[in-house]
Amino acid sequence: MTVTESAPPAAPRRGRRLAGRSLNEIGLLAAIIVLYLALGSSAAGFFSLDNQLGILRDAATVGIAAWGVTLVIIAGEIDISIGPAVAFSSVLVAKAAAEWGLGLGAAIGVTLLAGLAWGGLAGWLRARFDVPSFIATLGVWSALGGLGLYLTDALPVVLPENGLLTVLGGSILGIPTPAIVMVILFFVFAYVARYTAYGRSVYAIGGNAPAARMAGVNLSRIRILLFATTGLLSAITGILLAARLGSGNGGAASGLEFDVIAAVVIGGTALAGGRGTMLGTLLGVGFITVIGNGLVLLGVDSFLQNVIRGVIIVVAVLVNVIITKRARATRES
């Protein structure tokens, strides 16, 4: 009888947690709709087809990496290496294809493997030596940023003309190829996060790492896989960016890591770990991208744009902290 009487309270608590996540996503969707209405009435050309396709391309640059970073932050970690990793990937694929005598297919393969390697290295430093993930990925950020500029003398490396590059940098049936890749990867990561043992392990580590270890979760393996995944996604983004620009550039994607982290946090992923959804991140990506596009169309000074984005990140973190504290209080009540 005792078990029967104690069971019902768990359902309402679970319902409140789910309602909280849904409220965050509904709020983001409403904010995006408001942005569309406001920009559509104030920014000339916002609703044009070319601009909407441009928003999709920009969203893909942020979104592809954001899927991996979502899992990293859910696990209670952080990855700040995205921007230089994307730039270096664009340089690497261009150098390999144009100057090192490799075919385009081999150049893409080398770039993807390199992405796995530097991401795995950051994860190994975190797992093997308990180096804070911020420091490990800061090292990768600095090394890749320097290498990208050193190998190119800060000049673009022009890619050879190739049909595959035209497709990767262009569109399929009128839809930008990077956006198609982003959507496909979104469904893959949404499935992994929700329905696989790996995804459950990521949430468990973020919620309580010692308890997850006692439950049999291999923390080292999960952490290495997490950062190897973000390295791979950065490489994919860099290849698509190089195809779009027609060249590799060590100075490309500057500050991308901040947009990615902002999108993840705005999407409701807790910086403390243990909470977050891919759907929330998708909406966060849309929110960040639409704001960036609108600021450009409105003619806002580029330096002031950075100020506005910084304010948005701070506000998003504050809201996230407040929601996390309330969720914790709800669980304890």
TrEMBL record:
Pfam families: BPD_transp_2. This is Simple sugar transport system permease protein. It comes from Amycolatopsis magusensis. It comes from the Bacteria. The keyword Cell membrane applies. Its main location: membrane. Keywords: Cell inner membrane, Cell membrane, Membrane, Sugar transport, Transmembrane, Transmembrane helix, Transport. The chain crosses the membrane at residues 26-47, 59-80, 100-121, 133-152, 172-193, 224-245, 251-272, 279-300, 306-323. It is found in: Cell membrane. It is a multi-pass membrane protein. Signal peptide: none annotated.
